[in-house]
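#lab-general

N.A. 3:47 PM
ok so I finally got the sequence cleaned up, no stray characters, all 129 residues accounted for. can someone with queue access submit it? mine expired

B.Y. 3:52 PM
send it over

N.A. 3:53 PM
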Amino acid sequence: MGYPNELKYTREHEWVKADGKTATVGITNYAQEQLGDIVFVELPKVGAEVSKGTSFGTVESVKSVSEIFAPVTGKVAAINEALATAPEKINNDAHGSWMIRIEVKDPAELNGLLSAADYEKFIAEEQGK
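B.Y. 4:20 PM
back already:
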């Protein structure tokens, strides 16, 4: 699968769509494939502070529970409420199913994220290819 070039990626398998001072965050297609069928998503409350590199929620699948990490520091501006009743949307369209929107405190943090090509290279290395 190709990864959308307009998104940035983390080594923890989150994607980020930056729009000014807002970052929309979800998990990558690779992450959802590794998890399997997603049955529950736990997200923070709107207004919660999140810090780059720290966990802001979890994704539970039939296989395991995985933490989701904030790619940037800021305040949660919105959460995708639809995932509370339909977490499988992530399996159907990982890059179209956002989880949270963050009001970014320091936009320079976005510069440290991976491009689509760099993320694909990272996955290949992680799989030992």
